[in-house]
Amino acid sequence: MRKSYKLDSIDLLTYFEKGDYVRMSKPKEYSYMTKDKLMMYTFVALLVLTIITAAMWSQVTPINPATMEPMMNLGLTLALTAIIAVGVAVGVDVLLNKLTSDSQLNTMSSAVFGLIVALSYSLGAPGMSLATDLIPVGLLTAPSCFFYVAFISLVGLVVFKKVVGLSGRKIVNPAAAAKFVVLLPFLFTAFLAKDHFASYTEGGLSVPQLAGPIGNTVIGTNGLASFTSYLQSCYANPAATTYPDLNQLMILEKFHGWPGGASSLAVIIVGIALFVIARRYIKWRITLAYFVAIAIMSVLMSTVYADGDFMTRLLFELFIGSSIFLGFFMATDPATTPLTYKGQIVFGIGLGVLTVLIQTYMNFFGGSLLALLIMNLLAPSLDKIGKTQSNNRN
Q1: Which listed CATH number (1.25.10, 1.10.10, 1.10.3430, 2.60.40) goes with 9-389?
Q2: pLDDT digits over 251-282, tens only?
Q3: Chain centroid offset of residue 183 CA
Q4: Exposure of 179 by Cβ count < 10 A (0-12 exposed, 13-18 middle, 19+ buried)?
Q5: What are phi and psi of 11, to 5 degrees?
Q6: Domains of the chain by residue range
Q7: 74, 124 in Cβ contact below 8 A?
Q8: Contact assessment for residue 258 and residue 321, using Cβ atoms and an 8 Å cutoff
Q9: pTM score of the predicted model
Q10: Are the C-beta atoms of 318 and 261 separated by less than 8 Å?
């Protein structure tokens, strides 16, 4: 009797790296999915999010806090950012393929990488930053943001996809690692902006500490404003005369931060649609474990710090742009995450726990980025937890 092997999605993706089709458990049955086709589906999903955000952000024109003059429209800025990031990634991939014999041409993979770079780069000056120039606004607006996005795309493609990939398995998510390295000189202004927590009279933005009670109202001495009002002033349309409800703001539309997470609802719909189409080839267990862990940690922190209401912290932790986008489109990267199902669940839980801890105790509101890099380094060890389905024989 012929013995057959069951291959799970991870095994398929391993074969995809070689550009091959994979024999399934039944004789003469082949997978319809190739790496290029999976990348094409992912690219379309990311492109849909880009178009949605660009259309939504087209109503915003940032004001230069130094000159008080209008700057480039935010929707147009995102469109150009996406074109630049994808153009650099694909162009460099083609160039390396022409110049070196061992550089495989992966056009769709490079295009997906470029869009992830664009959608995970913070854009838009938050409304409350216009009174004081604490945040390096040039990083977040045109034309300076074009240079940084292009540089991140270049570093990520060359260093973290090509060079690191020569050793076999990629170590860290290329887009996350490149962004962190390129923006490291701005650590204390872009990532760990401690002046946000100083009082407004002292030149700060009076943001309440996450390591303390937060909620819909001012609580004790933990900042001069409620955390809800901070989120509203940070993510609402700067031209709006009134702030929207917090639920609407965090779930439907945000006008600052990661473009990929500008509309959490759009990310959820597009992400789930992609998971359904390619459910056997995407590590959805990581995403599920990640969001469950974040929700539990958020409720735990609300209990520990006696928040005025637990929904404010929960909405922030789940639906901040970096968290919602990373959970669907970066945490599931097949090359830098565990191969085994149990390893993926542990990976997602660790990612969620670290995200909340980093955001709470390091004042790093994009804590999921650093958490992802840390968990990427642990992925090889997590492969020892459980075993892939391909190890079992009928």
Answers
A1: 1.10.3430
A2: 999 999 999 999 999 999 999 999 999 988 89
A3: 15
A4: buried
A5: -65, -40
A6: 9-389
A7: yes
A8: yes
A9: 0.88
A10: no
